[in-house]
Amino acid sequence: MKKALYRLKQAPRAWYSRIDAYFSKAGFQKCPHEHTLFVKSEDEGKFLIVCLYVDDLIYTGNDGKMFQEFKNSMKAEFDMTDLGMMRYFLGIEVVQSSAGIFITQKKYAKEILERFNFQNCNPVKNPIEPGLKLYKDLGG
Fold it and tell me: How many whole angstroms separate alpha carbon 33 and alpha carbon 40?
């Protein structure tokens, strides 16, 4: 058998090798500090950044044409689904608008409260100790 099967020990390594080879062939550079981050740069400052998390991809950049070419290339190479604009990722809610990109973990916090049966406790607006003085860590 020449391909790794889902749920076998070698499947994640085989998948990463396959996607890494695809990104190299497509002209992406792998970040030396984060091996799941790939960047493709073109003329006039155009770029595309792709983050790989297991079998999910998140991408961003500054050129719509590069987005479309990337999506078409990925669909031709892999069996994939475009889920549109990101709304949730790893338990973080993402809201994108003309005012900016905002992230929140409200849904995750509610799930934790429900899990430990604290959904009816008294809420606070700022979950921090009142009067706590924060100091800049100059060595950090």
Answer: 16
- Name the phi and psi angles at 60, rounded to 5: -150, 170
Go through the chain and tell me how many residues it has. 140
Domain count, the chain: 2
Please give the residue range of the domain that contains residue 60. 1-82
Q: Is residue 12 part of a domain?
A: yes
Q: Are residues 17 and 60 in the same domain?
A: yes
| CA gap 49, 41 in Å, rounded | 9
pTM for this predicted structure: 0.69
Q: Are 85 and 96 in contact (CB under 8 A)?
A: yes
Q: What would the pLDDT profile of 29-71 be if each residue is shown by its tens digit? A: 999 999 999 999 998 999 999 999 887 888 888 988 999 999 9
